[in-house]
Amino acid sequence: SDSIESTMNIGNDSVYILINKASIKCVLAFIIYLGVTGNKYNTIDEIHLPKNKKIETIGAFADTFALYSMQIQGCCASITEDSSVELYYTILFNLARKHGVKYQFSNYDFISLDNSRNISDTRIISDVYEEKKYLREPIQFYLQATLLDYPIVKYLSYYHVIEWFFQKIDNFLIAEIDQLLKGSTTGREILEKVKYYQEGGKKITGERNHLLICIKKYLADLDDLFRRIDEIDQNAMPYYETTNVSFATNSDTIINRTPSSETVYKVLMERVYSTRNSFVHSKQDQAEYGYRPYEHDKLIRKEIPLVQAIAELMLINSALVRNYAK
To answer: How many H-runs (helices) and E-runs (strands) does the chain carry?
Structure first.
């Protein structure tokens, strides 16, 4: 089957979802869209035809580039354009996370699935539908990461998901301290709260500290993180438990599940942040702990399950409850 069709029944309401091969009308609109935009999103640049293959029909064009469309409808027009886009990103995220579907897309009207065989099972819709609203911008970074294969760019795309939450952490801290000031909290209690969000005397707004606070806030259950890493790659956790990221830092970055959660959070932060810095910065005086092209690519690839799992759990744990049928 080349389509998935499902109606999700929620109480007395329902949401109708159809993922189908793009119609001829949709394909023509897509071609016009590429012409108008000059293919500025490189939607099909990376797809190459087999030697001597010709595309002679619109249908063959859709087959060659695996173009699909998604239709979302609610009963009694309860699904608005905004909520359908929210649900669209929820489905895309879960298709990628749970079923390994990869995308190249230019906007929410058209989807090109890199491995469309993964959506041929009609049971998938019930698996990827959630009554949740995910944040669109970090989801886009996540979907980009799933498509890419070069380890540095893939790692950075997952890190961008995490980094997106840094501003939310600033807002969270401000709101929490404002709440303390409005209450009967003493100056000492406020100082203790500030110290809680500091690491090694560094300012609260430093990137290293932002990362630490994000991990604490959105990964409250570390067992969830370890389980997800095992699902992504069963060899990853044994590697993290025995091997430092020696190309990135001289700090101890071995992840030991047994110490206090505070210790594990700090090690997670150090491992992720130092890995990221190793190929973002290439200063000569830091050459001892820096990325060397090709030589360290395999080691960086081993770090991807960790940053992927952290990014996924931050997206999941920051999602809002959303009933799309009402």
So the answer is: 13, 7
